[in-house]
Amino acid sequence: MTIIGVLFLIGIVFLGFEVFLPGGILGVFGGLALLGGCVMAFVGYGVGGGGLAILTAFLLVVAVLYFEFAILPKTAIGKRLFLHAAVDGTSSVARATDLVGQLGTTATALAPSGYIVIDGRRHEAFSRGGFLEAGAAVKVVATDNFRLIVIPESS
Fold this sequence. Notes:
Blueprint: H1 2-17, H2 25-71, H3 76-81, H4 92-98, E1 103-106, E2 113-118, E3 121-127, E4 137-144, E5 147-152
Parallel strand pairs: 3-5
Antiparallel strand pairs: 1-2, 1-4, 2-3, 4-5
Helix pairs in contact: 1-2
Domain NfeD-like C-terminal: 97-150
Subcellular location: Membrane
Transmembrane segments: 6-21, 53-72
């Protein structure tokens, strides 16, 4: 009985420390310790003892996970442990679609890729009309992921 309790205790402690030292090693060893405790309970106490051990292990794991992910993040230690920063801003794709129809000038030669300037901002562009010299007037006709598709303004 003592070795079963020790294995369960080691398993739960290792699973608990997995939050502080992520990587999976402590989680695997904790799971193996719990499994070993369940096997020893089956061997020593039969089906009834083994079933009780599995139920106990399951409830302990649920309790540890609940503590780690529902209670711990609200504590002072948890607030320093877990990331809470949110990403601000919009994706470049969302801003690029707003540029369709805008006029700009090529900052570099587009052969067929290069850079254009619209409202003082540089953007990567692809010329649908082939080679364009630097300083040529262009119109944005579409977007392709983070790249603008342009044609010469006279087209």
